[in-house]
Amino acid sequence: MDRRRIGVLAGVGALALSALVGVSPAHAAVGCYGSGCNGKDPQALGCYADAYTGSQVTTDDGRLLQLRYSPACGAAWGRLLQSYVGDYVAVTSSTGLSYSAYVSSSKTWTAMVDDHGSLTARAYHATQCCYKDSWTGWY
């Protein structure tokens, strides 16, 4: 085999290999997508890795309520920062699906809802006393 043919074959092989490993790490590491994420923990399935805050609001009682979104998972969840044990946070999808959680010492987020394509979601926080409830915007 001549050098030119070897070079062409090596180039084709390298191109094929790069296509195989060309999957982004965020997409390769997640454990669900879209409706397959419904009711699942974003931390446990790796969806937190590429997540960003799609919408947020500071509540009347001083908490930071966020709707987190993962493009790799096509899913969203509610997260409450500056929270206290017993605080309530929820996420609702435009399909009507909803998940909620009470803040524990180590967990301040809800399970996920499908939020890919034309679907949207928003997060909700109910106060324990004396303040009005809060919603993020739809995202």
TrEMBL record:
Residues 1-28 form the signal peptide. It comes from the Bacteria. Keywords: Signal. InterPro entries: DUF2690. Pfam families: DUF2690. This is DUF2690 domain-containing protein.
